[in-house]
Fold this protein.
Amino acid sequence: QVQLVESGGGLVQAGGSLRLSCAASGRTFSRYHMGWFRQAPGKEREFVSAISWSDGRTYYADSVQGRFAISRDNAKNTVYLQMNSLKPEDTAVYYCAADTGVGPGRMVSRTKYDYDYWGQGTQVTVSS
């Protein structure tokens, strides 16, 4: 069993920054692909960013490329999402997710259905 706990959300003005954290417990965190997704009211949960367990490669949605940065600290079992130049359209509940079905050659997914553990979410609100 894997438990994920997000923190760091809040209210920020447009152009500001926030850093989200996701602390993981349970199984072998260093061997999971980790992702961040977000869900705005009335919208589907969408991919934001992901990071590979094997080579640390990072992936971003076009809407956040160049503004957000994902990173991980395997010693702390934590993944981070640094969010800069925030816009009102970034307002959403942000979820951390773990893909524990890793094996040789498993690709990092942008699809929410490939992630089998989820945190409870943290609210990010960007005011204009």
About this structure: The CA atoms of residues 32 and 102 lie 6 Å apart. The first strand starts at residue 3 and ends at 7. The mean pLDDT is 94. The radius of gyration is 14 Å.
